[in-house]
Design a protein that fits this description.
Length: 229
């Protein structure tokens, strides 16, 4: 049974993947939900993107032409891995992937929160009101749930721009994007589609950052079609 490796985004539970996992299993494939260190797997260290590339390599080193699905931050890890090891993956599916560097105000605020605030802690965000304003402005609720190590991990990840890495990806790639995504805008998916050789893009009308949750059947059917082609 062919395995499909799933790298979730910045979340502490994979409960919302249940429908996608069920549909993949029903189609005769074996979905493997990877536990991402620091998120769905305990970790006592600060991670860099290179660390996550090494982690993913260890998950896949004994696999032949593995299929990888990466959502959001999971897509960021998958892109970096596929660029580092262009011959390793069989197929790649990116769902509203992170990895394109932005400098708009909300992103600058987010980098401030995950960088400066993580470094100086309570000295920067000692006021509950100030914290709420910063979180709302940055559009980032997950920061509140992150421990100090993962706050610094966040700072490491969002400071990396993977745009130049996209052209190094050689495996067939399916890019799936919610048309109404505000966290990683559709323009990011279009940049990836233009830069990644042998890639195609599916835009999901009415979906935001997680089309595989809100439009699970439609998205999974397209993933399965891509895998079988």
């Amino acid at each position: 049974m062919k395995k499909i490796f799933i790298i979730h985004g910045w979340t502490y539970t994979t409960d919302k993947w249940k429908e996608v996992v069920s549909l993949i299993s029903a189609a005769g494939f074996e979905p493997v939900q990877l536990a991402v260190p620091g998120l769905t797997e305990a970790s006592n260290k600060i991670w860099t993107l290179d660390d996550y590339i090494g982690w993913l390599y260890r998950q896949l080193e004994n696999e032949t032409d593995p299929i990888v699905v990466g959502h959001s931050n999971g897509g960021r890890i998958a892109i970096a891995f596929a660029a580092r090891y262009p011959k390793k993956l069989g197929k790649l599916i990116l769902v509203d992937s992170a990895g394109i560097y932005h400098n708009e105000l909300p992103l600058r605020l987010k980098r401030f929160l995950f960088g400066t605030a993580a470094k100086f802690g309570k000295k920067i965000t000692s006021s509950e009101t100030a914290r709420k304003i910063l979180y709302k402005a940055a559009g980032e609720g997950d920061y509140k749930n992150a421990d100090p190590l993962m706050k610094k991990t966040m700072a490491n990840l969002i400071s990396v721009d993977l745009t130049a890495n996209l052209s190094r990806i050689e495996c067939p790639t399916l890019i799936i994007w919610g048309k109404k995504d505000r966290a990683t805008p559709l323009a990011d998916g279009q940049i990836m589609n233009s830069a990644i050789k042998n890639s195609e893009i599916m835009v999901v009308d009415g979906a935001a950052h997680s089309p595989h949750f809100t439009h699970a059947k439609q998205v999974t059917e397209r993933i399965l079609q891509f895998i079988k082609s």
